[in-house]
Amino acid sequence: MAVGILGGYPARAARPVVDAFAALGLHSTFYARVLLHVPTAMRRYWRHVIRHVSEISFGSASLLAGGGTIGVVFAMSAVASTQIGLEGYRGLDLIGLSPMTGLMSALVNTREIAPVVASIALAAKVGTGFTAQLGAMRISDEIDALETMAVPSLPFLVSTRMAAAFISVIPLYLVGLFASYAATNLAVVNIKGQSSGTYDYYFHLVLTPTDVGYSLLKAVIFAMIITLVHCGYGYYAGGGPEGVGKAAGRALRTSIVAVTVLDVVLTLAFWGPRPTLPGLGT
């Protein structure tokens, strides 16, 4: 009997590892299928893509009761960048480098803060909504009903959302980037009292179109990852309403971790391990 118990222990111990690899394979193939069907979704279901773009950007109700993402991205970016301006000025002023606050704003907001903040807002506002919508459709057999009616559920439900997220993230991110720049300028010039000429000189000295382009590319990649992760968890949700809630929580954790890890990888890929400062020759 003891031999039987011990003999079954390795199988039980390996079960979580096997399940993790099975889930990884399931989601990986799901992501590939979603991306492959995006052109089909754009061509056949473009009306649904437009509707999703409207819901993502502006919502269908007031801001506090299910409004769009544009206000959330603007507010979160402004608050985060205000703190960058206030604390950055304070820290640089301690070593006599307060005029460099404009330089810090151009680098930190563009390369790191704005893409990450916009992605977190997208995951919390849009991603969880996708998980809940698809999860509710799964547990109520609506997805199976679509398949029964010969409507391919993956392009119709997921690839349309993927295309809408790709279209929406560009203007949404540019709004957030503008809010970041404006909030840091307000904090440094109007609250801390630094000369606007000094701030603008160092700000424009290091801000380049290349940095803005890389920053926008970061935001687009983050949006794709967030949409794929949240739609995957929603599409394969099970276990009733409780299971949908758990899927939304797992998707949010997974997407935020993926964004933070990918942010480090993309920063190293775009600017290298020893980034240079444009306009300063370093």
Automatic annotation (TrEMBL):
Keywords recorded for this protein, A-Z: Membrane, Transmembrane, Transmembrane helix
Entry annotated with the keyword Transmembrane: yes
Keyword Transmembrane attached: yes
Annotated transmembrane regions: 20-36, 56-80, 163-183, 216-238, 250-272
Superkingdom: Bacteria
Pfam family membership, one: MlaE
Protein name: ABC transporter permease
